[in-house]
């Protein structure tokens, strides 16, 4: 897998039927190792180990209904009250973080209304604070600290 612009960690990799798998700390099982999953697991590690987000408040691959279609958020962090706090959209490293990617995460956050959104391909990260009342977005220099 590609080197990322995220801290390396001791990930548990295995091979099953000739295919790579990585242990997902949140789902507590091995999942298929794809470039996007590689990025997601690095972001999970970053949030837990470097920003001290509680593991119990992070959900991977959560479902939502958007225009009568089932979609999945890559990562959602909740505050201690159970409200969405941080929505993370992960892309594979070779995917350009285009306007279409921001449109996708905006549609998801229109439902969730998280105050923070991150879009990353593991190499480039965009962190934003969203004010749903004023409908404004402020780009941040870093991932938001957990304040929950």
Automatic annotation (TrEMBL):
It comes from Fibrella rubiginis. This is Type I restriction enzyme HsdR N-terminal domain-containing protein. InterPro entries: HSDR_N. Gene3D superfamilies: 3.90.1570.30. It comes from the Bacteria. Residues 35-144 form the Type I restriction enzyme R protein N-terminal domain.
């Amino acid at each position: 897998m590609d080197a990322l612009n995220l801290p390396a960690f001791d990930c548990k990799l295995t091979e099953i039927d000739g295919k790579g798998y990585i242990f997902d700390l949140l789902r507590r099982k091995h999942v298929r190792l794809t470039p996007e999953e590689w990025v997601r697991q690095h972001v999970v590690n970053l949030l837990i180990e470097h920003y001290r987000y509680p593991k119990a408040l992070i959900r991977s691959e959560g479902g939502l209904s958007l225009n009568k279609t089932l979609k999945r958020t890559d990562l959602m962090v909740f505050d201690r009250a159970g409200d969405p706090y941080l929505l993370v959209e992960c892309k594979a490293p070779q995917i350009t973080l285009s306007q279409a990617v921001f449109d996708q995460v905006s549609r998801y956050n229109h439902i969730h209304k998280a105050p923070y959104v991150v879009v990353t391909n593991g190499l480039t990260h965009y962190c934003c604070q969203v004010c749903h009342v004023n409908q404004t977005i402020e780009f941040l220099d870093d991932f938001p600290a957990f304040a929950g």
